[in-house]
Structure formats: C-alpha cells, structure tokens
Specification:
This protein is mainly alpha-helical. The chain contains eight helices and two strands, in the order αααααααββα.
Length: 171
Amino acid sequence: QDFKMKDIQDFICKWYKNIEIAINGGTNLQNAIEQGDRKYRELIEIFNDIRYKNLRELAVNPLLLTIVAIVHRTRAVLPKDRYKLYEECLRVMIELWNIANKKIDISFSIDHSMTYLSGIAKRLMEKCCREMDKKEVEECLPLIVEGFSRDTFLKEMVLKAGILYESEGKC
C-alpha cells in the first residue's frame, strides 16, 4: 500500500536512526542518534519543498522511499528531476552491489552496467511494457559483459543488485 505523509515521516525517522546506530552506534550511541535525527529532518524538509514534488510522489512507494533514502544518505543531494533520481538510484544500487561482491571477484563497472540497463529500459519503453521474455532481454546485451557471459551479468543484476527480476522466463 502507498504511504501517507505520516507513514513516510515515521519510516524515514526509524530508518535513519537504525542506519546511523548500526554504522556508528558502537563508538558513540548518542552521536549516532543525533546524526540520524539530523538526516531525517533534512530529508523531510526536501519532501516538503514544492520544488521536489516529483520526489514526494515517488516516496509513497515504500521500496522507492528506501532507495531515495539510500541516495540521500550516500549522495547528500537529491536530484529534482525524476529521471536523474532514477539514474542515481541505479548508480547507488550498482555501487553497493559491487562493494558487497568484491570478495567474490565479480564486479561490473557502473558505466557499463548503466549502458546495458539503459538498453533494456529503452526496449521496455518502446514496447510500452514492464517485462519482456528473457530472450528479448538477452538481445539487448552483448554476449560477453566485461569478461563474463551476459547470463552471468543478468543473474547478478537479478540476484545480487536487485535491479532486475526474473519470473517464469521473463525479466
């Protein structure tokens, strides 16, 4: 269900508090709580700013709200344009995926990943749909992506990065 503004505020308050405690709480719990509260207030101010109307419209979706919060925390600046926000969300998700996977020697560059994912998104928009047969998705990619098969790239984007999903032969 979509969030109301009160839900957005409650979620962001708890999210920032818990993130800051998890990251910095071991050294100084009070400082972590204050840091989380400061960042929460910054983001709520942005949601209340009329110039960020598009952002507020996205924030009603809990998943998108989480991604917006991650972008806000990691970038400290949120784009006003929806397409720029989506681009930043993808970049953050790919960066986090790369950091999480350093230990297993699979990493795709952000620029290449963005290029390939853009091709898939373009095809989806041209077809006016939200999913395609996996074969069509594969046609948007080269056979080899940075030394790995396109199948490996797709699996990593589905399983690890969470950018794509796969269901019954569709992506």
